[in-house]
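haha ok so turns out i had the wrong file open the whole time. this is the CORRECT one, sorry everyone. sequence first:
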Amino acid sequence: MKAKKILSAVTALTLLPTAGALTGFIPAAAAENSTVTVRLDPSDASPFNNGEFEGWGTSLCWWANRLGYSEKLTQAAAEAFFSDEGLSLDIARYNIGGGDDPTHNHVTRSDSKVPGVWETFEYTNDGADVDITAYDVTNDQNQLNIALAAKAANPDIYFEGFSNSPPYFMTNSGCSSGAADAGSNNLRDDMYDDFAEYIAESTQLLKDNGIVFESYSPMNEPDTNYWGANSNKQEGCHYDPGTSQSKMIVETRKALDEAGLDDVLVAGMDETSIDTSVNNLDQLTDEATDALGRIDTHTYSGSRRTQLKAKAQEMNKDLWMSEVDGGWDGFGLADRIILDMNGMMPSAWVMWDIIDVHKDSDFRDPSGNATEANNSVNYTSSLWGVGMADHDNEELVLTGKYYMFGQFTKYIEPGDTIIASSDSTLAAYNKDTGDIKIVVSNSSGNDIDYSFDLGAFSTVGTDVTEIRSNRDGSEQWATITGEASLTNKVLDTTAKAGTVTTYVVDGTGAANYGVISGAADSLELNATVDLTLETDLTGDVEWSVSNPAVAEITADGALTTKALGTVTVSATVAGKTFSRTFNVPFTGTINGVGRELRVGSTAQLSLTANISGDVAWSVSDTGIATITPEGLITGVTPGEVTIYICFNRRAYARKDNTSSALHSYRNTVMG
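then structure:
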């Protein structure tokens, strides 16, 4: 006969802290109502652009080149993406095309063959330089139309110019899509100054036509092997890290200065990978480092966000997330925004091609194929961009990704300050108005309760506005009432399943902050921690506690715990009081259960704890195992059982780390 046994999940269970009880253990009656607590930390704020967010944006490349022929599509795009009624985007990256050899016909996309703004050129006698003898901005009229409409929709829009490639006649391959060897430099060694001059003259040309670049990035994903001659996709140009990239930055700075455009900063290097950005910044020459006005990075790959943030601070440069997207739905986009913004805290976040899908029955690729005739999207589509341009009907078809993007772009605004929150949230506040903005992404199938601790702010308003977009589209920037509550600087709410939700807590005027730091939320009994107040205020700090029986505090912030319970510590400076609540919990270890307990066998459980008291034991299913009030457990039949502890007449259950099942000590009885 096969031996039957109870398999213990662990051999000894450490009881972790929780408010007023066994943490990790929670009161059995409330065990299923887990709440995510997030303490906003304005002392951990974006260090870039003097702490002020510059905005959200999109590249105009390539969709503007594709849509700008149609006045109807142009106006629809301006309203959908740049107006206050739409996404209210603040930044547009304008692509100055290099322009390919007019005899080439290898690009198969309908949107990515961006024309150069040059009209004619000639080489010098020795062939070492080239003079562009005529410019014509109407070559790029489609993109210009979109840019001007965007500016009309948002007069405060920030334009950044950027290049994917120099003109074909400045390249080694004679092709603006890349080199014969995609991992080799394609800009001719003797043409760096010529290309920089083209950038400067194009910048002036656009300025003369109403589009003023505030920055220019001369390279795009330069340290890759993406850019090969005769590519069917797009323009591109490799630049080796170090000398080559440094030279391009320096020459661009010189050319802009010589053209009287010294107010246009040079950005770079727009590497595709965060990790590559970190590595290649170290390889710039001192002259290039001085010439570089801001770090732009893409986040298609790599993970070293905190390192890039630190590198930018070390170099005393501002930082943008200047391009990313993917075949995501709205939740995928929201998750990437939260990851990038919390990890790097850049002063801008810019999407790639905001319209990347086109339906056009008339379009034919170079081989004569009608590649766009049958394109379609639906509301829940995962796609690059946020929708589709239907050229047959001259309309935009927008997906849920558009509305979930707007949960960020419409409410976190230029001038706000990004601050630390949590892995599923993005938070910001406005120093002048005191408004606090929080975006919560919940892609799961379950509602999630959140409690946001706003105690670090000197003043918090009494009104909160909730705006929500959901998976099926029945809510699109919908104003929700009656679901969020704001009491004593705590915002309690439920993030509904399958939603992205924005909360705007109205401010009461200029806000100061104070963050009590130096310890975790849970403290050990009979221990001392040294607390400090991180604040933008000056003056002496006065410390006090709400419950001296639980803990006492000295004049310099040394907090000593004396008994179990909760205690609120307050710090007052310059007439402002900031508070933080700590918990001194029961902790202990269950002893006496080995790795196995056979059916019919017994084991005596005991509890080693940080205080003394009466312990009683019980189980969830006496058909699987029985236990005496004194802790003697006996295996009965195969199965799984939950053990409950009643300590000093209060029952607790422990929540499993990997499931929502509640248990203090879960055992499986196996045959």
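Residues 305 and 344 are 5 Å apart (CA to CA).
again sry for the mixup
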